[in-house]
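Hi,

I'm pasting everything inline rather than attaching a file, because the server keeps stripping attachments. The sequence lines come first, and each chain or strand is labelled.
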Amino acid sequence: MKHHVIHPGTYFLVFFTLLILTGVTTVVGFYDLGRWNTVVALAIAVCKATLVVLFFMHLRYSSALPRLVMLGGLFWLALLIGLTLVDNLTRVWDSNPRGWETTSSSVQRP
Amino acid sequence: MPESHAMAAHQFDDLEQQREAASLGIWVFIATEIMFFGGLFTGYTVYRTQYFASFVAGSHLLDLKLGAVNTAVLICSSLTMALAVYAAQTGKRKLLILFLIFTMILGTGFLGIKFVEYATKYHHHLIPGFNFAPEGVYPPQMQLYFCFYFAMTALHALHMIIGLGLLAALVIMAGRGRFTPESHNPVEAIGIYWHFVDIIWIFLFPLLYLVGGR
Amino acid sequence: MSTLSVEEPEQAESRVHYLNVHYGVKSWLLTTDHKRIALLYLASITLFFLVGGSAAVLIRMNLLTPTGLLVEPATYNKLFSIHGIVMVFFFLIPSIPAVLGNFLVPLMIGARDLAFPKLNLLSWYVYIVGGLFTLYAVIAGGVDTGWTFYAPYSSTYSNTHVMAAALGVFITGFSSILTGLNFIVTIHKMRAPGMTWFRLPLFIWAMYATSVIFILGTPVIGITILLIALERAAHLGIFNPALGGDPLLFQHLFWFYSHPAVYIMILPAMGVESELITCFSKKRIFGYSFVAMSSLAIALLGFLVWAHHMFVAGVSMYAGMVFSILSYLVAVPSSVKVFNWTATLYKGSISYEAPMLYGMGFIGLFSMGGVTGMFLASLGMDVHVHDTYFVIAHFHYIMVGGAVMAYLGGIHFWWPKISGRMYPEGWARFSALIIFLGFNLTFFPQYILGYLGMPRRYPVYPPEFQVLNVMSTAGASILGVGYLIPLIYLIWSMRYGPVASSNPWGAKGLEWQAPSPPPTDNFEETPVVTAQAYDYPSREVEVA
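And the predicted assembly:
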């Protein structure tokens, strides 16, 4: 793996893109878009993080191994959150617990 | 971190092997850090799906403008850090020291703004387990939101403080002329760490400040 | 010496090696030599084994009579908690990786040291600091949460020294992370010329898979324990239902690490087992790549099954089914290994030295532990035997019958390399035998007790269970003696044992090319590898 020196011009380009994305996500934050607020905010965050990883952290110019390690970390994070939600999103919630014999009437959480 | 003399440490065959080992080492460390914050992100996700209204209410008590400004400050510090790595790669020692110090100033600025935000939360009685008694009516699980707000931002701030210490060490090492274009692994490694801490904030900003539109 | 790779045994006395290159306490406490750090770990985990073992002895003594022979119920809670915490976090998890792994990883791949020697020393100090916190918790009055620290008991109700014990576990986690990081980088970047991935000893594959779990699992228990401490100090409600918190979230986060932690214990044991089986049957392993890949498969699949610890804790029925099915998957790579070891034995020229006795014991005990694990993975069966002695027997067959047997087998196998001396073979075979017998007498009755419904963690039990409990305690006494004998003769052999040659077993592998004990830099010249692993002369016609 050879040394790859990135030109400062690239850094400045990435930097201004990041600032613009920050501005956009902040402005969107002042409007109520319902569930789309979450989608837009996270989509922009993923874009920003990707830019930082690829250029500031040089992953675009690195060998396969560091990329694999990074993806591995994210994959395991997805396992942790995903499999926890497998339980939490399918649990039967009873806001007003009653006796054992009446739990069959408990409702699925909205 | 392995020391960075012109000669490779005894366990390595050459500088190239040492450089690759240091690079892989810091990436493996980043993977560990992802999972370290990951526990908090999991708890956050679970409670946010469960108590969305409380999280919206909590989020709207934060100062969105200060959060946005802080995001910008941290992105600036990432730029100066990237430029510091560039200066190390091209062997410009004074420039390296200058950019490292810029990065430290911006990092301290971030912590300063964060401190102002914390102080405001204190005055508004929003610190769980300490003085949690917000004014007016609030959803019952809003305290959980603030638990995660403080846990996540404090863990992030702790990483910033450690990063500032590491940057100070880099400044001293750079001053002693320890870094050459061939051998500057600590600069690259701490750079990657600093950008990673930036990325955590890039996610904390929407997760904490941008829950539900205002 | 510079030209000969095989030397006369007598020369070892005059030769400079890693043990006699420096003397004095300081040369040990400030060493960055991976072999010396391995010995620091060996001494410290042995100490913790004795602490955890003493608690086990007291537990079994107390269960001699149905009403509890020795201690108050509250003290009994502290005994099993400290037994669990010390044995899991301070003995089993560091045992094979930190002792044998530290010693062997660089030797087996032909490197002079690990990639980050100072980090390696730091990891030992971190381990010691964590251990001191835990010992403080024991001495100050104990902790009674069980090793699992379940919320809200640990965070709200327990009035014992939870904080100190939890901090001890939190701190020692960083030691695991540093070791794992070091191994991963070393295995990737420090292999000798010609040492390709598929020429690596299977012990290295096991260490690699273990390190992946260290890296990706340990930080999660770190942050979880931190949340417990926070909750305990400030009563935030993160795990408190009264404030909207979910105690099951704690269990999810806890088992996300602590289930894979079981594989941290058993994967290295499997790696040792592959070395023992091949060496003492003088055969190349059957299906090398399957054994290697099954280690990685276990490391991955081990992260997908954690909620089978929570079937009766209130997880959704849907999650129960998902995790039950996923749990069965782990059996596949584990069985691949057992079948391949057995196939390796077929038509091998088998000799029964002490390490092989441990190795053969491992196969039997691990298989029994694994098969009963399948019972527990099935949703319906688990509801019946959850939190009974069936579970206790199951995981002791894995952790003690599996991991500790392999650890002792490995210690005996590499003892000539570590110490430069042979252990007394007769005593070693004797102790291997009585450990096997004592172990089965201790834990087999517990399967029956659990199936009959005796719950775990109680100091008293109905009188009809007494016969089986007395059998178990009798077995534990034999087991205890079995563990003390090697401790005595291994220490004795360091001074009085016969001097070992560089390769007393006729084993393959780079570590046997280095002199016994190896010099500080391991090899006179960096070895060049030209053959596959376990390249024993084939007795059959076809050559693999």
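The longest helix of chain A spans residues 64-88.

If the labels don't parse on your end, tell me and I'll reformat.
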